[in-house]
Protein 1
Amino acid sequence: MTKLAIIYYSSTGTVHEMARRIAATAEAHDDVEVRLRHVAETAPDEAVNSQDAWQKHRADVIDEPIASPDDLDWADVALFGSPTRYGHVTSQLQGYIDTLGPLWAQGKLADKVYAGFTASQTHHGGQESTLLSLYTSFYHFGGIVVAPGYTDPLKFNDGNPYGAAKVTGASTELDENDLAALDHLVNRALAISRRLEAGGNGASRDDA
Ligand SMILES: Cc1cc2nc3c(=O)[nH]c(=O)nc-3n(C[C@H](O)[C@H](O)[C@H](O)COP(=O)(O)O)c2cc1C
């Protein structure tokens, strides 16, 4: 079995829907176990309650499991999701990343497959810088970043070779291109992980 952790933050539900799509696509594989985990909300209640959509989403996910470092330790493949905040990762997801020091120190974050997904309100609103910020941490982990690149013609439709990304300006609903990009992101990450497990192309986790 390949173990996939989807670790994400969402204020108003877009990245949550992206994460759920990734989970559903992965669960369709017989050989994949999935942990879908949102990270803890760290914004003050005053901020959350100042926006109806934020307040509602928080209530929607209140009973869903919160990511712990163990979820990442467990995983072979980790897909991280965060909305763009001024071109950067949210403090909530960064807060989770900042709890990973003990695992990092033991080398336990290394040799996993990583990739990211994001959402922003606008085109050119910081999706690429958000993903690249995430990937900086993955490099520090010793992770294997499996960017989608343009490895499938569908990537010419969503146009983001760094990960999967939704522009919410026109509509927060995931459209055909968004769904295809998310499916491609997770299927490619799983395929590369399987190759590593099998020692394909001369490289395996045991060699590391
Ligand atoms: C504090 C803050 C900063 C944001 N910064 C940006 C930004 O730099 N560029 C952008 O296009 N959207 C920005 N947004 C919009 C969100 O990234 C966007 O609405 C995202 O889709 C929300 O995802 P969610 O529904 O999963 O919370 C910002 C939103 C907030 C609240």
Protein 2
Amino acid sequence: MARSIAEINEKIERGNAVVLTAQEVCDIIKGGEDLAFEDVDVVTTATRAIMSGTYVVLSFPMAEPCSFIRAERAWINNVPASIGPCPNERLGIIDLMVFGTSHSKEKSDYGGGHLFRDIVEGKEVQVKVETSEDESFTKAITLEDIPYARIFSTRNAFKNYVAFVNPRDAPLPTIFSALDFPPGLTCATVSGCGQLNPIKNDPYLETIGIGTRILLNGSEGFVIGTGTRSMATRPNLLGLADMHQMNPEYMGGFVTSAGPECIGSWAVPIPVLNESILENIKKLDKELSLPIMDVNIRQVICTTNYEDVWGSTDLEIEFDPIKCINCTNCTVEPVCPMRAITLEGGQISRDKERCFNCGLCTSQCIGGAFKGNLGTINFEGKKIPIILRQSDRARAIKLAEELKLDILDGSFRITKMVEHIRGGL
Ligand code: SF4
Ligand code: SF4
């Protein structure tokens, strides 16, 4: 049995298409029921995680025409930017690129990911430009002043990712831990949204290709190829979208012990074109391999599965202010990777929208005010507690639900790819 994207789009227009999220499909299967090809037309998938391979291209007027010949160096909120590629000679306009992993020289916990969210939130950001004539220009701008603002996501949305442990006897600063990674196989950090991940649901890229319409940080965009280090066994995606329509809740900076990283979110529709596509969608966390790497050498030393991470754990972290004992020095506020915890007037509070559900606070809070079961990974029969999640499955589920509603109300159109990307484009 088979169906085409055109047939699916006709059903959507007629109002009788069945669209489910990958979570709904997996809940049905986990509950002991089955789902047949006739039962579902489209499945929405999503992931929210640290996605280092992210940069923005911005183009905007910096000064009056002929105020300077060409820009040479630039910073936004002290985060370094690269000028170009277009020189815009004598136009007073600058084109620039900012990497999601660039760090502010003045503020060690602020980087490109934070800047992108600030821009999308409509905050005023400070631009500084040095020109070929050694002059300096500064300007405060908001997103409204930037006609061209697009995020390009290279190496995003891996099929799934890995868990990390540190078997050595010394702590290690790394982007895979918010604190220096504790030694001695005492804890693990994990990434990957498991059964929700887009490419897990289309592992042979039968429906995801060049021209596939997606939501990138909530904004409609397109897949334009695979990213760096993509391979047939472990593909990833390259995409772009306009920042003007993005939702800041799905973006941001995440502070690790090796500096700030960048968060990205993808939602991808999988049209159920044949039964074999549905079989992959029905695969549960327990069927998805989770390689465990030694963070020192980035090599796989053991393997478990995503059931350890998401099977019976809490997707959201709870904060109970009544349990806070107002420690003289709060041990959580300075290490929260999202800086979502603040101390004001002697009271600790948590910004739920900014919170990533990483779970670090559950092991760092002295009074037990933060609650959430992060689970353990199975390392050769030994249970190693997870102390940090660098993927936010709760938000991935929310994003997949939003995409489902957009498809059903006709505001998001499913596209047929123009070309497969298996060749490595
Ligand atoms: S789970 Fe805790 S540590 Fe992590 S972002 Fe939320 S408040 Fe911060
Ligand atoms: S460590 Fe926990 S209990 Fe102590 S002040 Fe911070 S939030 Fe409150």
